[in-house]
Amino acid sequence: MLKLPATAQVAHQQAAYxxxxxxxxxxxxxxxxxxxxxxxxxxxxxxxxxxxxxxxPKRRFITFSGALPKFFYDSLQFLHRAALLGRxxxxxxxxxxxxxxxxxxxxxxx
Length: 110
Prior knowledge:
By secondary structure, this protein is α+β, with helices and mostly antiparallel strands. The chain is built from 3 helices and 3 strands, in the order H-E-E-E-H-H. Helix 2 packs across helix 3. The chain has a 3-stranded antiparallel beta sheet with strand order 1-2-3, with helices on one face. The chain has 2 domains: about 35 residues; about 70 residues, no CATH class. The model has no long low-confidence stretch (mean pLDDT about 90).
């Protein structure tokens, strides 16, 4: 049995596969075996930077850091919020996050 990492990415792909298996089994069919496809990783490194590891051809990964991965990270966070809470709530939270960043000091003062 293949051991997969305990990440949300794996769980999300397994859940989508399970939905497909249930739908095809109700129609009398069978689904192919589950195959995990790594989509890469994003890690926030602070308020203005992040690190990314994205898949490339021939089973290799490209790694880079800086503002572009931070944009990807923030976009992915927004998409997750929109999926869980709805678009209106996600936009409201994004606006609140932006306003909070403009009104609070960059360092704790106590």
